[in-house]
Structure formats: structure tokens, C-alpha cells
Design brief:
This protein has 98 residues and is mainly alpha-helical. The protein has 3 helices and 2 strands; from the N terminus they run βαβαα. A two-stranded parallel sheet has the order 1-2.
């Protein structure tokens, strides 16, 4: 399963690039930083494949380039929400299912 925040031609192309004759790839879109979207992704994986064997949580954003002192609270919240909190939620949801 691939989880993408946005659905578009690039996302579809990535799914097609990863898929092979030996590997079935399903695409799921939704905001990864949202716990309900992450839960829906885990449920979709279980429904599609009958379970979860492994998790690679590498969701990350970097909406700001520059000195840390110049980053706003909004930038901080987005970075922490996607890069830390969402991976924490997803691990907590999926690890008990393995």
C-alpha cells in the first residue's frame, strides 16, 4: 500500500512504477497527519491484503527552508504533525496487528 497526501498524476505514476508482476500495489490518499486518515489507511491495507506484515513509516514534510529562528508556529506544527505525530499514531495502530 502506498499512502499519499494528494491524488494526482505523479501519485498514480509512482504507484505504477513500484508495482511489478510479483507485487500488487494499492494507492490510498488522504492527509497522513490526520489520525482518522491513518486509521482508514490501516483498515484499507487489512481489507486489501488480509493483514499487515511490515510498516515503513517515512512520511515527512519540510515546508520551510531557512534558519530555525525564522520558522513560524504553523511550520513547527506541520513538521511535528507529519514527521513525528503521524508516524507515532500509525505505529500504534498497526504494530498490534502484526
Amino acid at each position: 500500500m502506498l499512502h499519499a497526501t494528494v491524488d494526482g498524476p505523479e501519485t498514480t505514476a509512482l504507484g505504477e512504477l513500484v508495482a511489478t508482476d510479483a507485487m500488487d500495489v494499492r494507492l490510498f490518499t488522504g492527509p497522513f497527519a490526520d489520525s482518522q486518515s491513518s486509521l482508514a489507511f490501516a483498515r484499507a491495507a487489512i481489507q486489501s491484503f488480509g493483514g499487515i506484515d511490515a510498516v515503513v513509516a517515512n512520511a515527512a514534510v519540510n515546508p520551510y527552508l531557512g534558519p530555525m529562528a525564522g520558522a513560524s508556529d504553523e511550520v513547527y506544527e506541520r513538521v511535528m504533525g507529519t514527521n513525528v505525530r503521524s508516524n507515532f499514531w500509525f505505529a500504534n495502530m498497526t504494530c498490534p496487528l502484526m
